[in-house]
Amino acid sequence: MAVAAGQDPYEYRATRLKHLPRQLAVLRKAATEAQWDVPLAPGRGRGIALQECFGSIVAEVVEVTVKDGNLSVDRVVAVIDAGYAISPDGMKAQIESGIIYGLSAALYGEITIKDGAVAESNFHDYPSVRMSKAPVIETHIINSGETMGGAGEPGTPPIAPALANAIFNATGNRIRQLPIKNSTLNV
């Protein structure tokens, strides 16, 4: 919608969140920490997404590189407002694991049926993001003092839209179906 409106994706969202200061603060912090206003080299892209779930608000900015049809997820900046972080390190770990889980689903997540049964039996034949392919993840916490929300799940929902937006920013091509491994990009 931002592109159709001829607006920057971050600015488009920020304009529509003026009446929601908590959400706007999370979005702004993510854009600032990700250096949204700093241009990227050709073949690189940035995407942003915001999600309110489990009583928390999370924004994520994903940076990718697409070269010769190969996709690399390079960096994720996440900001969470879960009210108050009793254990900031624990909250960061939860957000980071949710990001890896969500990236795995977005990039590879597919269950196939063969002869009436699920073909995948465990992680040896169901791919997930391995540490060698994991992006740099920066997690920032906003302690707003609002009612406390969850931290285990909120890192997952915004990652796929932020990733798809980053790919579009890098290539001009929209991802309309997941997993991305079934697109024209090599993951």
Automatic annotation (TrEMBL):
This is Aldehyde oxidase/xanthine dehydrogenase second molybdopterin binding domain-containing protein. GO terms for molecular function: oxidoreductase activity. SUPFAM superfamilies: Molybdenum cofactor-binding domain. Coiled coil: none annotated. Gene3D superfamilies: Aldehyde oxidase/xanthine dehydrogenase, molybdopterin binding domain (3.30.365.10). It comes from SAR92 bacterium BACL26 MAG-121220-bin70. Pfam families: MoCoBD_2. Residues 53-135 form the Aldehyde oxidase/xanthine dehydrogenase second molybdopterin binding domain.
